[in-house]
Amino acid sequence: MFVQINTDNQIKSDAEANDRLEQRVRSKLRRFERRLTHVELHVSDINGSKGGNDKRVSLEVRPTGHEPLAVHADAQRVEDAVNVAADKAARALDHALGRLDDGKRH
Questions:
Q1: Structural domain tally of the chain?
Q2: Can you say whether residue 52 is alpha, beta or left, with left for phi > 0 and alpha for psi between -120 and 50 degrees?
Q3: What are the pLDDT digits (tens) for 6-37?
Q4: DSSP H helical ranges for the chain
Q5: What are phi and psi of 44, to 5 degrees?
Q6: Which of 22, 48, 95, 96 is a good FRET partner for 70, with 20 to 30 A between their CA atoms?
Q7: What CATH number is given to the structural domain containing 41?
């Protein structure tokens, strides 16, 4: 599973910060690792220095042989938004892939 992290110019981005975000995503999606080819994370600051729940994370997961799934989350901190988005992605994958697996059993 390849994880790609993209940030806008308002978000502090360095190798260490990206590694931490990648590890968060990998830990949340670990059980789907063999079924995912690519995970793309887009991190942005919606309203700059004004504050509030302005960190937006868009997370796209690409399961092998299936359409990509995308989820979004907003929070005050990037790490919180990544956690929420990764949880949403896991639920979406459970729903999409679980439904496909159920169909194969019947």
A1: 1
A2: left
A3: 999 888 888 999 999 999 999 999 999 999 99
A4: 15-28, 78-105
A5: -145, 160
A6: 48
A7: 3.30.160.100
